[in-house]
Design a protein that fits this description.
37% of the residues are buried. The longest helix is centred in the first third of the chain and has 14 residues. The termini are close together. By secondary structure, the protein is an alpha/beta fold. The chain is globular and about 55 Å long. It is built from 11 helices and 7 strands. The chain has one domain: HUPs (Rossmann fold, 3-Layer(aba) Sandwich). Helix 2 links the parallel strand 2 and strand 3. Helix 2 packs antiparallel against helix 11.
Amino acid sequence: MATDLNVGLFGGTFDPIHRGHLAVARAAQQRFALGTILFVPASIPPHKQAQPLTAYSHRYAMVSLATSGEKDFIPSDIESAEKLEGRPSYTIETVRRLKRQLKKADRLFFLIGMDAFADIAKWREPEALLRETDFIIMARPGYSLADVGASLPESLRPEPKIAKVLKHQPATGEIVLRGARLHLLADTHEKISATQIRAAARTGRKLDALVGAAVADYIRKTGIYKDPARTTARKKQTSQTNVVEMRRK
């Protein structure tokens, strides 16, 4: 912990993690000089509590396998059911817990896709979250700066006359707000989806090109996507012990 560090936080259900996630992380790491990126599988995402979700232990294991070849990509169990004592995983709480573990000079970046950012105003304490961490938003074709602005909490949205101008500008560059900073990372959209992968797994198709050999082998051996219910029962979800939290140089 001798040097200050740019730390990325990449959260999601990762059901499963795939090569699109890793491509985004690599692009963000290179663009913003991220020394470490924490991959944080959500145990009980508030917005997906009613949806089938593969057991946390499987999702965490796949994240560990997918990131094993990247020394700066670290799986984290900060949102495991054990750490949260069964409560839903709210990003604002995760960010605050993580920042307490970092040095004051360290800088935290939260990685998020444009589709997810579109709902940021509905998240818990969105204004506070935007103040707590820089956001790296993976832009997608067809989105403008006006779309980014319209997604913000009402108190931070640009005035209509400004939004009208932003409508004709692609979602690239940087947006500096009152106490908040958004970085727009273009050209990172991968045509891979977790839904597509789960469907392919159910029919026995090869997954190596989508998730990598190690994760593909894990999915095949465990059969976790053969059953549409995907062994979800949240009351049985457990997190792995002896996990690696962060490696610091």
